[in-house]
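agent> call fold_tool(seq_1)
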Amino acid sequence: MIDLHTHSNFSDGTDSPTTLLSKAMAHGLTTIALTDHDTVAGWDEAIAHLRPGLELVLGSEISCQTHDGISVHMLGLLFDRSNPELMEMMSATRENRYTRMSKIIEKLNAANYEITLEDVLAELSDGATLGRPHLADALVTKGYMKSRDQVFAEILHNDSPFYVSHYSPTPEEAIARVKAAGGVAVMAHPMSSLRSRVVSPESFAAYVDAGLDGIEVFHRDHTLENRERLLSIAAELDLVVTGSSDYHGNGKLNLLGENTTDPEEFAKLEARADARRVVTRA
């Protein structure tokens, strides 16, 4: 089984890369991608603790935004992390997260939520990418809510008065940087209306022109109708079809391997990278 979208505690997941890999093997996965938000900080630990029988695909879920403000997540996989332009882009996105978090906290304070940036940072693992899930965890710790899911449902969703937009590259920019680094670009959960507004089906042609390689079709946030529409788009535009769990550990229902990628599709995807970068142990 191939799962091409997971997170560790180097972004907003709760498992260390070591624990994530152990769970992947226990769930019968044969290939797993580590795709923390806007960072490659967990790669070295994952590589060091990889065991025979499991293949590791290294990547990152890159936060993007269209010109009209629609949030898009782009999975960059199998790229060369020594590429300076790609690393600089992700670094700029991470740094902006602190400014954004401070603005959200100001709004919460004005609404009588007693929370500080220090409270939020206390929820991060060393080297982790800051995100709203850490704010949710801090609110749970402070006793305002019972779970991450409740926080997002009630006060941290994208249409709430506490939402603050942030710097992100456009999807086309992210795709170009990933491709220049020798990797492949797959749009994550593109029709997940549970998250926010979604891009129109007509926009995919422009992303293909920029170098898009695939679409994450099989995802728990996609309805059957969404999946059928995306399969049609993939066939029309010659895009690789992927499936994945978007696993985060505790606090989210997503289970490792609940959606997977067909081996033939993964072979096509890997062939689009400029070098073989899947990590294995003999």
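agent> call fold_tool(seq_2)
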Amino acid sequence: MTRCIFHIDLDAFFVSVERTLNPNLMKKPVIVGGDPSRHGVVASASYEARPFGIHAGMPLSKAHHLCPQAIFIQADFSHYRESSQRFMEILADFSPHIEPLSIDEAYLDVSGYEEPFGSSQKLALVVKKRIYEELKLTASIGIATCKVIAKIASDLCKPNGLLEVAPGEEHLFLNPLPLAKLPGVGKKTEQVLQEMGIATIGQLATLPLDTMKKRFGKFGTVIHSYANGIDDREVEAPGGTKSISKQTTFAKDNSDRHYLEASLHYLCDHVSTELRYLDQHAKCVVLKLRYTDFKTITRQVTLKEATDVSHVIFDTALQLLRKTLTQKEKAIRLIGIKLSSLSGKEKQLYMFDTRIEKWRHLDKAIAQIRRKYGASSLRKGKDIFI
């Protein structure tokens, strides 16, 4: 299966968050960083301020000199962190394979997950719509078969853009671009390459690999591969995965138990598949519900033994859901599942339980079919209702 990688980057993130708090800032030059009369640097500049030469990292005093009419705002990271967390939660609804790069950007491997939407572009449009509807923020998305090209594509289509580089068109896309567009090529590297007569990514791609190795060492091999559109890096969370979660927000608040249970079944199948992909087992199952009045609750159970079996995870979550619905009859707008207390080794408590072994074999068979024919090629019985 050809990989499909998204690079999603929120546009002028700090400024955009401030505008959700104060709409009067819209369409005005805004600089987040603090008082320009004090020492400090620009953390973020609106697109209206950038034509004046203002960019992140510039001293605030210089930014004020270049654009005295700009509105200067003190950064409030509590708001930015909250928006960032909600941003990542939205991405998790579309694929479990997320790699945050910073507070406002991430890679998302949607290979196979784009099929129900019809195409990768249609999926990207849905992602952009969700981000705007829930956060009032715009995002630019680059789509490609590898991380480096997806990153370049999202940079080129900002702000609020969408750019896909189709499989097989990587060289056509990269060749005319200036060296500075290639991730990893800083000013010093660019200067050295220009002294060698290299001005574009296409020219860099045609250099002999031995020349790059001699001049730049291992780093030369990396940027030479990137220039040729070669990047085999996986999309993976840094520092190891501590939990796996997925949630869905309904188009309309729902109180139908069959529909809620079917939704939960789909979510449990999704997270348990990701659990096995990571070769992990979970001991804690957490149910998340958000009601029509936006009140959010969580309920959790710690298992006697860690597991990666879909049926065990769903059965545990289902008991939590049914108990909660009995206690509170209110329409639900969001349902989610999270697996935590992850471990890499499974204890063999279930080795003599034939039911568990049958379910485990079923999980393996389903995984083999999906790997061969796509993530949406086979769905379990309860899932067909959602």
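agent> summarizing second result for user.
The chain has three domains: 1-167, 170-227, 244-385. Residues 346-352 have pLDDT under 50 and may be disordered.
agent> awaiting next instruction.
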